[in-house]
Structure to design on (490 residues):
């Protein structure tokens, strides 16, 4: 069935939009909270733009990464409550999305790749086609290719949990109950450093995600994520 | 669209809103009763603060201890966020090794007391090698020796309605970063009675250096650096505190 045909049949029967309401709502809440976390996180980082490994780190100690910006003392104080506010929103939105993903079988139906797709030649094919700026021809409207599926699953079930872990590992209240959360990472400063590394990966994902949406038709894809309507969505490259 | 407001939808929506509202109300009442609401619960950001504080109060107990380290882990350098006070009062006390310094413990206590440094040193002492982490991001490990705050509060017979302990430092306008000034030093009874909460007079086996808070500073196992009030001049036990300022009151993070 053609893209237009799929869209038409959806709008006629009113069933199964491109993205379910819960996916759409949680998507934008997550976008909002990630932006809030990024801005407040930078506000905290600039108070001490050095990253270390192990338990301790201070000016004069060996550092791992020196972010080339001056020390700005003060903003960390009022950015921390903002960071936690958005962290809680992200937590609730993320849990709602994951619960819905299991209950509504969004993960099983739309994201877990089929056995045939998991072959390395298939994955390499999708990547090569993308690098040559060519439509894969394998992806059909409304379904994700194997690289998209694996990426979304990794972001949801590995990257965001890793950010939560490394963030919580910096909390003395949390590590007093679960000391291994800091010990397993190599210490308090390692947790802090990894928190930034994983956030850098979130930024990388977001950059590629937005680039792909622009290539596949920015307005149509954003509209699909707001209204659920697919009528204008072109074939996702 | 004509059947958007069906009777069934109105009833279910009404019922869920009523259930949700009464659920939130009941949760707030229970949380307040069990000391799960922090002083900085107000405003939009107060929602996050309340969730963090209440989650940690439910998760932790006096048996959950901050990680402790070995002597060999002690950092060579222990940075401070500002030098000690230089007003005349503090300078005089420092010059005579705080022999004339007294620490009044007042408020909701049965027997208010004013303890000298010697009085504190006569009480049972203990040492903890713990991580000190500033909310800015840096951290070091040091050994702190002192008397448990719980022992001192026992001595002055804290009354049952006590909810917070407030720590007043000597004024220090030289602390330009102002973190301690802004946040104000107070903790709840759960932290006040925690076994790792010390009134510390010694650091890494030596007399507490002036820049680290001489003569006595608060040392908490499970909090960021800014909660460990330096240069103590008075301790006040109270049932309510008026939190003003920015940042988070709870430093267990």
């Amino acid at each position: 069935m053609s893209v237009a045909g799929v869209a038409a049949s959806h709008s006629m029967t009113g069933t199964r939009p491109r993205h379910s309401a819960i996916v759409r709502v949680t998507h934008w809440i997550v976008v909002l909270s990630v932006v809030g976390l990024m801005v407040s996180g930078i506000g905290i980082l600039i108070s001490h733009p050095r990253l270390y490994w192990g338990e301790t780190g201070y000016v004069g100690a060996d550092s791992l990464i020196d972010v080339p910006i001056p020390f700005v003392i003060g903003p960390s104080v009022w950015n921390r409550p903002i960071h936690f506010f958005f962290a809680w929103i992200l937590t609730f939105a993320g849990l709602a999305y994951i619960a819905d993903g299991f209950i509504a079988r969004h993960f099983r139906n739309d994201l877990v790749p089929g056995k045939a797709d998991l072959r390395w030649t298939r994955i390499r094919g999708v990547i090569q086609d993308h690098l040559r700026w060519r439509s894969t021809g394998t992806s059909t409207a409304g379904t994700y290719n194997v690289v998209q599926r694996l990426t979304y699953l990794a972001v949801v079930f590995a990257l965001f949990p890793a950010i939560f872990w490394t963030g919580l590992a910096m909390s003395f209240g949390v590590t007093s109950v679960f000391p291994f959360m800091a010990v397993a990472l190599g210490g308090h400063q390692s947790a802090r450093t990894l928190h930034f590394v994983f956030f850098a990966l979130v930024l990388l994902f977001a950059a590629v995600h937005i680039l792909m949406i622009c290539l596949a038709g920015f307005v149509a894809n954003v509209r699909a994520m707001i209204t659920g309507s697919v009528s204008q969505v072109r074939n996702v490259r | 669209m004509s059947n958007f407001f069906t009777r069934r939808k109105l009833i279910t929506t009404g019922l869920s809103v009523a259930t949700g509202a009464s659920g939130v109300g009941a949760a707030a009442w229970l949380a307040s009763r069990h000391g799960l609401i922090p002083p900085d619960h107000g405003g939009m950001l107060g929602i996050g603060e309340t969730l963090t504080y209440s989650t940690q109060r439910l998760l932790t107990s006096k048996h959950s201890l901050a990680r402790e380290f070995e002597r060999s882990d002690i950092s060579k350098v222990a940075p401070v966020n500002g030098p000690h006070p230089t007003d005349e009062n503090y300078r005089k006390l420092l010059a005579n090794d705080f022999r004339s310094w007294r620490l009044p413990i007042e408020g909701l206590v049965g027997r208010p007391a004013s303890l000298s440094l010697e009085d504190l040193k006569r009480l049972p002492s203990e040492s903890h090698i713990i991580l000190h982490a500033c909310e800015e991001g840096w951290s070091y490990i040091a050994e702190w020796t002192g008397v448990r705050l719980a022992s001192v509060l026992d001595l002055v017979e804290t009354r049952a309605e006590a909810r917070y302990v407030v720590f007043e430092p000597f004024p220090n306008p030289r602390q330009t970063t102002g973190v301690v000034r802004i946040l104000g030093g107070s903790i709840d009874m759960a932290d006040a009675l925690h076994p790792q909460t010390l009134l510390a007079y010694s650091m890494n086996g030596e007399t507490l250096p002036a820049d680290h808070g001489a003569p006595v500073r608060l040392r908490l196992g499970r909090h960021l650096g800014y909660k460990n009030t330096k240069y103590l001049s008075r301790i006040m036990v109270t049932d309510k505190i008026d939190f003003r300022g920015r940042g988070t009151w709870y430093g267990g993070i």
